[in-house]
Design goal:
Elements lengths: L2 H18 L9 E4 L5 E6 L3 E10 L11 E5 L6 E6 L9 E10 L2 E4 L3 E4 L30 H6 L9 E2 L28 E2 L13 E2 L5 E4 L2 E4 L2 E2 L1 H4 L7 E3 L14 E3 L9 E3 L2 E2 L6 E2 L3
Parallel strand pairs: 11-17
Antiparallel strand pairs: 1-2, 2-5, 3-4, 3-6, 6-7, 6-8, 9-19, 10-18, 12-13, 14-17, 15-16
Length: 287
């Protein structure tokens, strides 16, 4: 049986469930436009065990079918069911036509045909600072020019003292960084890098940072699982000499990248992982 046949049979099964078991109302999910392309659909969990999405770009549904985009999701992320599409480039005025199907308590229900149109505000590249004249009338009351964020969001934005890489300013109380780890491998994370090194001062932890077999992702969560060194380097690892080479993220030709074992400097017995946003995201918190 081919994958296409299996997919068709599963879709027919879903249609049968829809026809026979329309048992509860399905809430409308939240849709967010992603940059530089794509969109995200988020539905808050309410005891569901399955979330299905079917969608079209600029093409209405006139009957129940699989559409241009389809996803069947069987695990939630932190209390939400999430579908991400990073392949569709959306412009202002484009409309996402879609329907969703969920299973709760063994019973399924389908939403009505829904739609979401991309607005101009979601495609703003940025807002520049207002121009300010160098001459000030001595009889005129002066005011402090609005920041770009205050101009964009009005009085709701109080500019924070926190400094964020790549941003002129941020609002107090706003989210400055988020990562949902919706991936299956480190290589697909755009803001994170794994450390590969023998850590030294100031803590001198008795381990090595090696991401192989120590990092995984499960249901939107980052999992770091230390392993015994002997599982990768053999039982006589204590007195091995290891050079991490070009993979090393520490100082080349130093103890961070090359470990020469001796009686007083045995190889770390544990391998673990460390990832950071260095080179991608930094912030300075101020009060």
């Amino acid at each position: 049986m081919t994958c296409d046949v299996r997919s068709t049979l599963f879709f027919l099964f879903v249609l049968i469930r829809i026809c026979l078991a329309q048992n509860f109302e399905v809430p409308e999910p939240k849709i967010e436009i992603l940059k530089p392309k794509g969109f995200k659909v988020t539905l808050k969990d309410d005891g569901y065990s399955f979330f299905g999405f079917r969608g079209n770009i600029n093409e209405e549904f006139h009957e129940v079918n699989e559409g241009q985009m389809k996803a069947d999701i069987v695990s939630k992320q932190g209390g939400y069911w999430v579908y991400k599409n990073r392949s569709k480039k959306l412009e202002v005025g484009d409309t996402i036509f879609y329907w969703i199907y969920v299973i709760k308590g063994g019973k399924g229900s389908m939403s009505p045909f829904l739609e979401y149109t991309v607005s101009a505000s979601e495609n703003e590249i940025g807002v520049g600072s207002p121009s300010v004249n160098s001459y000030t009338d001595p009889n005129q009351t002066t005011t402090t020019p609005e920041s770009p964020l205050s101009k964009r969001f009005g009085k709701l934005c109080e500019v924070s003292k926190t400094v964020v890489q790549g941003e002129n300013s941020v609002c107090e109380g706003s989210l400055i960084f988020n990562e949902d780890f919706d991936t299956t491998g480190l290589r697909s994370l755009s803001k994170w890098n794994a450390e590969i090194m023998f850590p030294t001062e100031p803590d001198f932890p008795f381990n090595a940072y090696i991401p192989d077999n120590t990092v995984s992702f499960e249901d939107g969560s980052l999992v770091i699982k230390p392993v015994l060194t002997e599982t990768q380097y053999g039982e006589d690892f204590l007195y091995n000499t290891v050079n991490l080479g070009v993979r090393c993220t520490g100082k080349i030709d130093r103890s961070e990248c090359r470990h020469e074992a001796s009686v007083l400097n045995v190889f770390p017995p544990v391998l673990t992982a460390k990832i950071s946003t260095r080179h991608h995201f930094t912030s300075v918190w101020k009060i």
